[in-house]
Amino acid sequence: MKVKDVLAQCFLFRGLPDAHIDQLVSIGQLRSFSKKEAIFFQGEPAEGFYVVLSGKIKVFKISGEGREQILHIFGPGEPFGEAAVFAGALFPANASAMENTHAFYLPRAGFERLLRGNPSLSLNLLAILSKRLMLFARMIGDLSLKEVPGRLATYLLIASAKRGGTDTITLDMTKTQLASLLGTIPETLSRILSKMQKSGLIVVKGAQIEIRNRKELESISGLTPEEIGLNMP
After folding, report:
1. What angle is formed at CA 4 by the lines to CA 19 and CA 9, rounded to 5 degrees?
2. 1: helix, coil or strand?
3. Does residue 214 sit in helix, strand or coil?
4. pLDDT in tens, 195-224
């Protein structure tokens, strides 16, 4: 898929006229990363942000004890690093490629020039950044207030919604990575998956998880269907 097509479908730029998308393409550059290659580090100046073209990247922090906490995983069509760039700040976390990845890099200086000349682009970004802020606020609440079953139920429901409401979800990460994303350890995640399966809530077959009792998962997550939609990009 062409860079222009990916940018046009990216929720950050969706709805912009072709002329604006062409301007975005003109100021950026293609970048490739090998599996496990670092993209940026926490504390580095945020001089530009990325849109994933293919592959997957993870944004994460390392605790004082050396434990990795995955904050988010981004796939094709998703931007990352944009909030720090817009704030003129430092990157608040690390990013690295989970597999061979191609991304489109948009430098801050060129992007700011476009924003000053395109109010519609500025408004679109304001809306999506507000939505992203709500998502991360909810994620922080999930990690600090919910037990791990609630976090897992939330993840499964949002993953289902992103895939059009399907009951069968194919994980795009290892269970170890999912455990990190949920703020727990693999052993605890395995026990909860097994317990949910025995209770008839889900069926686990390798990397596939089938939802069997959506209402009970919603009850465990504490989310309404409307709130699940709010957490989607």
Report:
1. 95
2. coil
3. helix
4. 999 999 999 998 899 999 999 998 998 877
